[in-house]
Amino acid sequence: MAHPVYFIGAGPGSPDYLTLEGARALEACRAVLAPASFQRSFAGRLAGKDLESPFALPHAEVKAWIEARLPRGPVGVLIPGDFSVFCPFQSFVAAFGDRARVIPGVGAHAAAAALLKKTFDLPEVAHATVITSPRAFGRGGGSVRLRDFARPGTTLVLYMNDRPLPELAAELRAGYGRDVPIAILENIGCPDERVTLATLDTVVETVGDRDPFGVGSSDPEPALALVVAGEVLARDEDPSWWDRRYETVWKPRGMR
Fold first, then answer.
1. Each residue of 200-239: b (16+ CB within 10 Å) or e?
2. CATH 3.40.1010.10: which residues of the chain?
3. Least packed by Cβ within 10 Å: which of 89, 125, 158, 255?
4. How far is CA 49 from CA 34, 44, 64, 76, 217, in A?
């Protein structure tokens, strides 16, 4: 019997953000690859399983680790963040072909919106949401820069920030301008969850000497911190928009 490899969306690291399908798949696995922080937060669901951190091994050894355990049963891979964006496991999904099964979870950006109680687009406030990472942009003037996306009318959701906070705030301020709200969300859904709300002008002082992104850390595993920036953080939807939608979209045609 060819056992499957389950790539299970685990969001920002809380077991509560597994889907029911993901929880069933994880329970069936005898061996699981999970970041060290997820091994701690998922400890109750991982007891008795063969564990390893995928970030502790080169690519060939990760693949070999999975293959060596498949004859004994399904193998699971807990995916931090979201499979749909900035996921480093795509090559493993391709390598295992029909044996690979990808199970979505509650992505980190969806969990962030819920924690903030904010939708990331609002009529007449933000018409677009850009999910990206500072790692994807150059710092020089000859390439596309992060500031080019930090525009009024756009909400930025940033994964895997690799810049010191003063540099990040200055880059976003160069695009957005001053006094734009920013939120830094760390370890969403976990016991050490922390949310910092500030503006691009005050966030460095608000955070102080802490390093929420682990930029200066020797830990090779990614920090579980997400950044959201944009005017939606300080605004609420005009209730009249509901009635406009009702009249033009939802109201039965015969009643318009």
1. beebbeebeeeebbbeeeeeebbbbbbbbbbbbbeeeeee
2. 5-106
3. 255
4. 11, 11, 17, 10, 29
DSSP state of 134: G
Token readout for 238 is 């005009």
Conformation bin of residue 13: beta by default, left when phi > 0, alpha when psi is -120 to 50: left
* pTM metric for this prediction: 0.90
DSSP run (H or E) holding 171: helix 165-176
SS3 content of the chain, % helix, strand, coil (to 5): 40, 20, 40
- Tell me if 229 sits within 8 A of 130, measured CB to CB: no
Q: What is the pLDDT of residues 111-140, one digit of tens each?
A: 999 999 999 999 889 999 999 999 888 766
107 vs 1, more confident: 107
User: Residues 116, 185: contact at Cβ < 8 Å?
Assistant: yes
Question: What is the pLDDT, as a whole number, of residue 245?
Answer: 87
80 DSSP β-pair partners? none
Q: Tens digits of per-residue pLDDT, 196-229? A: 999 999 999 999 999 999 887 777 676 789 999 9
Q: Which CATH class is domain 5-106?
A: alpha beta
Tell me: the pLDDT tens digits for 57-83?
Answer: 999 999 999 999 999 999 999 999 889
